[in-house]
Amino acid sequence: MNPVPALAPQGPKVYTIREITRAIRSLIESNFSTVWVEGEISGFKHHHSGHMYFSLKDEGAVLKATFFSRFNRQVKFDLKDGLQVLCFGKISVYEPHGEYQINVERIEPKGLGALQLAFLQLKERLAKEGLFDAKRKRPIPRFPKTVGVVTSPTGAAIRDILHVVERRFRGTNVLLNPVRVQGPGAAEEIAQAIDEMNGFDHIDVLIVGRGGGSLEDLWAFNEEVVARAVFRSRIPVISAVGHEIDWTICDWAADLRAPTPSAAAELVVQNREDLEIRLEGFSTRLRNSMRGLWDEKKEFFRGLQESYAFRQPLNLINQYSQRLDELLRQFQNYLKNLAREKNQAFHHWVGKLEALSPLAILSRGYSITFNGKGELVKEAGRVRPGEVLRTRLHQGLVYSKVEQVKKEGGEKE
Amino acid sequence: MTKEPGEELKFEKALERLEKIVEELEAGDIPLEDALKKYEEGVRLSRLCAEKLTQAEKKIQILTKSLGGSVKMEPFEFEDKEKE
After folding, report:
1. Is residue B37 part of a domain?
2. Closest Cα to residue A221, out of A119, A368, A366?
3. Which of A124, A205, A285, A406 is deepest in the core (most CB within 10 A)?
4. Minimal CA–CA distance to A64: which of A85, A93, A36, A84?
5. Of the candidates B3, B12, B43, which has its C-beta nearest A143's C-beta?
6. In chain A, what residues touch B35 (CB-CB under 8 Å)?
7. How many Å is the maximal CA-CA distance in chain A?
8. Within a domain: residue B29?
9. Which of B12, B59, B79 sits opposite A154 (nearest CB)?
10. Contact A286 B21 (CB under 8 A)
11. CATH topology of domain A17-111
């Protein structure tokens, strides 16, 4: 056994724990000021303070890691156990625990780029939440009066959209809400602009987008705030981020994705000539179909007119009319006959009357004599000489004065 | 999600209605009186649509926000600054 060196006032230096730990720390920090390390995340904890704590491990070794909030705010993707990462930071010692660790300042996923990973992770999360569900996609109005556009006022997107409007249908109004489309804060501006546009009730459709660029340039359209603003928009949204191949999160969340801003405009701004041709077609078909229908109905009606069933009542009427004429004629004949008959009868009776008439006797030479009192004179004895008698002859009257009266038997008065 | 259809949506609706009327008339299986009513409506709709198509006045506006937070709509002229 080696003897323990005796403690002596002039012996070897005695460190306090604090001192030795400081010494180790400075030794480590001066040798590994900044390093890149590669490993798998395990025991990941996101503290409510915003700081992150985890271990980096590979086969056989573990390195404690801290990732303070002022650094981890920049990270686009989610850290989680099992993720292979590259970390940049400083090796240091946490004195209260006597542990060395890496204080991470930058972190990148291994294999994929950080942005790509962030994109995939966000896409997966929002998809699970239902933000991209096909059944919540609304139809895009085909003839919007007013198109709202959320993009840069100086970018290619608005220029291209205005060109399309100019070329196709000048009746379309455009309302631009100007935003920055890249750089810090761009995503928040875009999201806010989408919300603002929903405050106007005359906007029929929204185009949200920008011209083409690198993945970093387009990044604002992959941010969750934009996706959520698109999702809650009352106005149907067309996402038009100028990247023909890759879809952005905004594209997924929108009601419709257009590969470019021009394409988005073409989807909603109809070609006026096309519309005119279509309308003309409708008008022609309208006229033709109505004329056809009319002719058909007319023909049908004519057929009906000539059909036996339709003519039947007319025949009846004709028959009645004929019968009536006949009756009228018969009636007239009857009246005529009647009159003739009566006439004949009249004449017959008149003849008889005539035969019986005293006048008829007169015509045979007889006469009738009345006295002055108008009495019929039947006996000579009733007449006095000097009396005026009136004698009715067949034609005319004779007044005569009685000279002598001779009664029957010859007695003279 | 309900919204008042804008003026141009009425155009869309009018065109759809017109198409439907044309199809109904072309089918022919329709009483004359109804057909005449539909025809009248069709003529009215096609006139309306034609009018809309000839309205060539477009408005291009930009939202401007004052520091006080009020929002205004102003005419917008695109200036090609070759950015982005």
Report:
1. yes
2. A119
3. A205
4. A93
5. B12
6. 290, 293-294
7. 239
8. yes
9. B79
10. yes
11. OB fold (Dihydrolipoamide Acetyltransferase, E2P) (2.40.50)
Residue boundaries of the structural domains of chain A: 17-111, 133-270, 357-413
How many residues are there in chain B?
84
Inside any domain, residue B84: no
Distance of CA A409 to the CA centre of its chain: 140
CB contact under 8 A, A154 and B83: yes
Chain A 322-381, residues with CB within 8 Å of chain B CB atoms: none
ipTM computed for the complex: 0.70
Select the CATH number that applies to the domain covering A133-270 from these four: 3.40.50.2000, 3.40.50.300, 2.30.42.10, 3.40.50.261. 3.40.50.261
In the 8-state DSSP scheme, what is residue A140?
A: P
Length, in residues, of chain A: 413
Q: Which residue of A has its CA nearest to B81?
A: A154
- CB distance from A155 to chain B under 8 Å? yes
CATH of the domain at B40: 1.10.287
**pLDDT tens track, chain A, 413 positions:** 555 655 556 678 888 999 999 999 999 888 887 899 999 999 999 999 999 999 999 888 999 999 999 998 888 888 888 888 999 999 999 988 889 999 999 998 887 767 777 888 888 899 999 989 988 899 888 788 899 999 999 999 999 999 998 888 777 889 999 999 998 899 999 999 999 999 998 899 999 999 888 878 888 999 999 999 999 999 999 999 986 667 899 999 999 999 899 999 998 887 777 888 888 888 888 888 878 877 777 777 777 767 766 666 666 667 777 776 776 676 666 666 766 766 666 666 666 656 556 666 777 777 888 888 888 888 888 888 888 888 888 788 888 888 888 876 555 54
CA dihedral sign, ordered A321, A323, A324, A330: positive
Q: How many domains is chain B partitioned into structurally?
A: 1
**What element of type H or E holds A310?**
helix A308-356
Structural domain span for residue B35 = 7-75
**Cβ <8 Å between B53 and A275:** yes
Nearest CA in chain B to A293: B28
